[in-house]
Amino acid sequence: MAQVPQTFFDALAVRTWCDLALRALGRAREEIDAINVYPVADGDTGTNLYLTVESAVAAVEAVFAGHAASMPTAGRPALADAARAMAHGALIGARGNSGTILAQLLRGMAQVLAADGETAHTDGRGLTLALRHAADSARQAVARPVEGTVLTVASAAADAATGAKGDCATVARAAYEGARAALAATPGQLAVLERAGVVDAGGRGLVAVLGALVETFTGEAPGVDPSGASGASGASSASGASGAGGHARVEHREVGRADDDGDGDGDGEQGGWADRDGDSDGDPEHGGDECADGASQEGGPAFEVIYLLEADDAAVARLRARLDALGDSLVVVGGDGLWNVHVHVDDAGAAVEAGVEAGRPYRIRITHFGLGDVHTTGAERPARERAQRAVVAVVPGEGLAGLYTEAGATTVLARPGEPPASGELVEAVRRAHAREVVLLPNDADLRHTAAAAAEQARTEGIRVALIPTRSAVQGIAALAVHEPDRRFDEDVVTMTSAAGATRYAEVVVAERQSWTMAGICQAGDVLGLIDGDVAVIGADVTVTAETVLDRMLAAGGELVTLVLGDEAPELVAEHLEARVRESYLAVDTVVYRGGRQGAVLLIGVE
């Protein structure tokens, strides 16, 4: 069914574009992963682009939902709010080299669309300015730009848009055609692409995103003829360059994917390294080809380091210089105090330390490219046998992530206010590399997200059981009774029973005045929630926590689990342990440090 076209670039157009871009990348994800040969062949460009846009979609939807709740009769949100949400969502969710660059492209567009006097930026001229600023800012974010990459495709799109005169549909179509032509030419600009017989994977993803922009303003996706060339394009189909849904082969050659672990997901895991969601533009050659930032690929750095960073502009400028000296493929995007940092280095610790000196790094992801893989030697790695069973769990803080990992689970970190998307959970299931997976969402609000991820994983031949855990303490109880040698159904039943027998509570600080089941709370009040509902409103964390614990133990219990957040008072655990010892015989207490987990304290009673 044809999409209803948008006339101007307003908030609804932002929403529509993000949704269509996500669908387009979903359709093209496997194809893009398969042609991923620059600068590191880890076969996940399409996946990383998809996850980046999925995060942008979630942020835009949150703006629409918030607007509807606060001003139900005031129409849709402002363009500036939607555009900034798109950029912020992409920034915090950016994955890999291409995902990070795409986040900067979206941010560059948002800076124009959200500028003062937004009316002047909603028409074709405004879209042209946005595309130009996006291409220029993305190029500036890369330490050593190289032609034949997504940067080239973005610049070509902006150039073509500049030459177009008309409404948003005309400009979008021109940008798309310019991007397609540039994509077809990328093998002639990078020898590694020509040898592999493919176009640039990141550029291919950007073409899909721009195809979605055309559909936003015309109501129809760009046509694709059987040869793979766009029906609206004058570009030659002899190159095999794709349109929004065409094939991206340059010639009929099979490309070696970085799916060396034999599981078909292109993640190339090896030796227990759990996080393979990093750079998306791999290069299987090692004979001195240049990386995305112009560095030599001879040997290649051993690690990819990615993190979000809270820092000021001056500190980031110093960080760029230091990381540029440490490694290659350096991309730093963002602004206004929040940045996404991506670099390939041999000394991962030094890259993280540089971030610590610059500001506050978090959501740190370190990927080891693996000894003997195509990145370091050009040799193929032996396939790794799938495990029979694994547990994948969403956890709210670094401390619990370590605890779950020690217990053998593959973890997905959920930062406060940043819940994981379904694609992120699917990637975690793939990383677990098992025939059977038990999925623990550990949050009632993630029920539908986890269900969608489980359904997707099942289509890939993985047997997935979703246990509806609503708190990390229920997940701890389930993991404690997990036995991988048991029959799958029996194991799931036992884990589900343990989780269901665990009552959960959390102690948080109210951010605003609101109505609750326990009465009206004010900003700064301490709230005690039992099984998801506010049961206690207090002024002191320790006193409120004790009241919550007494109410929970009034119904009985054998084990109390306390998970302390970074903001928990220093002696609260000792006080609660003493309370249990003195007042509840035969009840044991265990204490864990959860880190930055949102809640001041999590409590579980089994």
Structure summary:
The chain is of the alpha/beta class and 606 residues long. It is built from 18 helices and 16 strands.
Sequence-ordered SSE layout with sheet pairings:
Blueprint: H1 11-34, H2 45-70, H3 79-93, H4 96-113, H5 124-141, H6 150-162, H7 168-185, H8 191-196, H9 201-218, E1 303-310, H10 313-326, E2 327-335, E3 338-345, H11 348-358, E4 360-368, E5 387-395, H12 398-406, E6 410-413, H13 422-432, E7 434-440, H14 447-459, E8 463-466, H15 472-480, H16 488-500, E9 503-509, E10 514-516, E11 519-521, E12 526-530, E13 533-538, H17 541-553, E14 559-565, H18 572-583, E15 588-595, E16 601-605
Parallel strand pairs: 5-6, 5-7, 7-8, 14-15
Antiparallel strand pairs: 1-3, 1-4, 2-3, 9-12, 9-16, 10-11, 12-13, 14-16
Helix pairs in contact: 1-2, 1-3, 1-9, 2-3, 2-4, 3-4, 4-5, 5-6, 5-7, 6-7, 6-9, 7-9, 10-11, 13-14, 15-16, 17-18
Structural account:
The chain has 606 residues and is an alpha/beta fold. Helices cover 43% and strands 17% of the residues. The protein contains 18 helices and 16 strands. It has helices at residues 11-34, 45-70, 79-93, 96-113, 124-141, 150-162, 168-185, 191-196, 201-218, 313-326, 348-358, 398-406, 422-432, 447-459, 472-480, 488-500, 541-553, 572-583, and strands spanning 303-310, 327-335, 338-345, 360-368, 387-395, 410-413, 434-440, 463-466, 503-509, 514-516, 519-521, 526-530, 533-538, 559-565, 588-595, 601-605. The strands form four sheets. It has a six-stranded mixed β-sheet, sandwiched between helices. A four-stranded antiparallel β-sheet has the order 2-3-1-4, sandwiched between helices. Helix 4 (96-113) packs across helix 5, helix 5 (124-141) packs parallel to helix 7 and helix 13 (422-432) packs across helix 14 (447-459). The radius of gyration is 25 Å and the shape is globular. The relative contact order is 0.09.
